[in-house]
Design goal:
single chain; mainly alpha; two-stranded antiparallel ribbon; 4 helices; 57% helix; elongated
Length: 122
């Protein structure tokens, strides 16, 4: 009921505005000239401005969503994909200093490997 009363009051204000501004005005735009009631010019300008602001806010919201929620790229299972580590790179990444494993050249350090085996025998 309250919404209906508010709607009726807003409608009365708009109708009063339209009646008081019903005078025809001449509008010129480059070579185009026409006579239009003043109320249509005012209301049309209001809605055009609202539409422009709405479109600008949508683009700003979309830009913010894109910046805060980047699309995550799924890992490719393609063997030719260069983003995946090779077995040697995986071994280097997982290599702990006290374990035998490939050195910088990709060769297994035999001295460390021998010392590890001697420790395991003791």
């Amino acid at each position: 009921m309250i919404i209906l009363l508010i709607s009726i009051m807003i409608t009365l204000v708009i109708v009063t505005f339209a009646v008081q501004n019903a005078a025809a005005v001449t509008v010129q735009f480059f070579l185009w000239t026409t006579n239009v009631p003043l109320v249509l010019i005012i209301i049309g300008s209001f809605f055009l401005g609202a539409l422009i602001m709405f479109l600008l806010s949508i683009t700003k919201d979309l830009r913010n969503k894109i910046q805060h929620n980047p699309i995550k790229i799924k890992e490719s299972k393609n063997p030719a994909d260069t983003r995946q580590n090779t077995p040697v790179q995986e071994e280097r990444n997982n290599h702990k200093p006290d374990q035998a494993g490939p050195n910088q050249d990709g060769q297994i350090d035999k001295d460390k490997n021998d010392s590890e085996q001697n420790k395991n025998k003791s």
